[in-house]
Amino acid sequence: MKTVAFCGHSQLGGKYETISAKVEHIVSSMIANEGYDAFLVGNYGQFDRLAASVCLHLKRTNPEITVCLIVPYYQPQLDSWEQAYRARFDEVIVPALESTPYPYRILRANEYMVDRADVVIAYVHSSVGGAARTLAYAKRKKRRIIYV
Predict the structure, then answer these.
(1) How distant is the alpha carbon of residue 18 from its chain centre?
(2) Closest listed residue to residue 37, CA positions, set 57, 63, 19
(3) CA distance 87 to 69
(4) Is 75 exposed, middle or buried (0-12, 13-18, 19+ CB in 10 A)?
(5) What Cα–Cα distance (Å) separates residue 131 from each residue in 97, 108, 135?
(6) Taking the model in full, what pTM does it have?
(7) 8 Å CB contact between 13 and 131
(8) Closest Cα partner for 92 from 79, 107, 108, 111?
(9) Hey, is 6 helix, strand or coil?
């Protein structure tokens, strides 16, 4: 299994369509030319949702790929929430983050994705914030990084 994770800013500043087209081109090329077949996505910002949308769209024509949602905050009382996600994604993964303080769970979930990925697709244009911290972590882990 060849795995891709994503990291990017929570706000895209009105560039959604342009970034979406670039990400779709990158991901479709990775599927067709490099054999990538597993995609780890988050759900806590515009880039996360864009990456998930692109991967789910490409899954329609590439049913062999797996799209997994990584959720840092599990809320068992929200059965309909979980059912809705499970209907869209191949797997919903809740990393064991109970000992992680609540404000750091998204960062730790992002690190969880990087730890399992061969490649990180990044839309990061600032040196501050969670996306920048995740990108720095990916660099420390010596992951291949594709910049959008």
Answers:
(1) 18
(2) 63
(3) 11
(4) exposed
(5) 19, 12, 6
(6) 0.92
(7) no
(8) 79
(9) strand
DSSP secondary structure string, 49-116? HHHHHHHHHHHHH-TT-EEEEE-SS--TT-HHHHHHHHHHSSEEE----TTS-GGGHHHHHHHHHHHH
Tens digits of residue pLDDT in 80-137: 656 667 778 999 888 888 788 878 889 999 999 999 999 999 999 999 999 999 999 9
Instruction: Tell me which amino acid residue 105 is.
Output: R
Q: Could you tell me if 121 and 4 are in contact, meaning their C-beta atoms sit under 8 angstroms apart?
A: yes
Other Cβ atoms within 10 Å of 34 Cβ, number: 12
Residues 6+ apart with CB under 8 A from 101: none
